[in-house]
Design goal:
The chain has 159 residues and is mainly alpha-helical. Helix content is 65%, strand content 0%. It has nine helices and no strands. The relative contact order is 0.19.
Length: 159
């Protein structure tokens, strides 16, 4: 392989930095995100964040949360299967309910969260934990909108 074949395509130029231009709002966003984590299993939260980020096309957040999930012990094959989670046997019933809810909330422009999706989530999560799962989904969707709008990009990784 020539050196040109090993070169990474340059990342798009980032449009703005939210921490620099809206620091108070950014700190509030970090606080909101932190609060959303208290009752949701960290491993599940990373699966939810990764799936929502994939749906929203936020490369920065996909990279961050897949990396965090792996650091937390998540298995690679489960991360690879997130876009097709329904077709795999890799996820528990509770995880499947959370992933379905993630899709429904993330794709809210397609219509309201279906009753059957919410009712399935209610079977697996106590009311406060379910409310916090919704806040995890809301928070990552907000972060994704920042990342996509600002054109945030992950740094290239060398093998």
């Amino acid at each position: 392989m020539s050196n040109a074949e090993n070169d990474h395509v340059p990342a798009p130029e980032q449009r703005f930095s939210m921490p620099e231009l809206a620091p108070d709002w950014y700190r509030a966003m970090i606080g909101m995100d932190r609060e959303s984590r208290t009752l949701v299993d960290p491993a599940l939260a990373e699966l939810v964040r990764t799936l929502a980020s994939q749906i929203n096309g936020c490369a920065y957040c996909v990279d961050m949360h897949a990396t965090d999930a792996r650091r937390g012990g998540e298995q690679e094959h489960r991360l690879y299967a997130l876009p097709v989670w329904r077709e795999t046997p890799y996820f528990t019933a509770a995880e499947r309910a959370a992933l379905a809810l993630t899709e429904a909330v993330t794709r809210i422009a397609d219509g309201p969260v279906p009753d059957e999706v919410y009712q399935e989530a209610e079977k697996h999560f106590e009311p406060a934990a379910l409310a916090q799962l919704v806040t995890v989904i809301i928070a990552i969707n907000a972060w994704n909108r920042i990342g996509v709008t600002a054109r945030m990009s992950p740094a290239p990784k060398r093998s």
